[in-house]
Give the backbone structure.
Amino acid sequence: MFQSNVFDYVRILDKAADASWLRNEAIGNNLSNVDTPGYKRQDVAFESVLGKALGHNRYQSTDSKVAAAKSKNLSVRTYTDYDSFSYRLDGNNVDVENENVMLAENQLKYQGLIASINQEFQNLQTAMK
C-alpha cells in the first residue's frame, strides 16, 4: 500500500479547528452563565498539548515534527478555570468583556485554520494536475 505523509498538516490543522470550535462553545457557555452564582468559566487546552506533541527539538524540521505528532497525543479537552480571580461576591469568575475579546480572537483563529486547510487541499489539487 502507498504510504504518504501528505495529510500530516491537514490532520494537525483539523485537530486545531476542532479545538477552536470547542473553545467557541465553551466561551458561549461562559457568556450564558455570566449571572449564575458560583459558575466557573471554562476553556479549552490545546495549544500546550500541540506544543508538547510537536516537541521542543530545535534541530528537527517542522515537517518531521508534524509527521511524528500522533493523533492520540492531540486530545482536545475542556477544563474549568478555578484559578481566575472573581471580583464578584457570588463566586462567578466570568468577565463579559474578556470573554467577548476571547470569542473574537477565537473566531479569527478558526477562520484562519479553515483557510489553511483549504489551502492544503488546493496545494494537493495543484500537485495532482
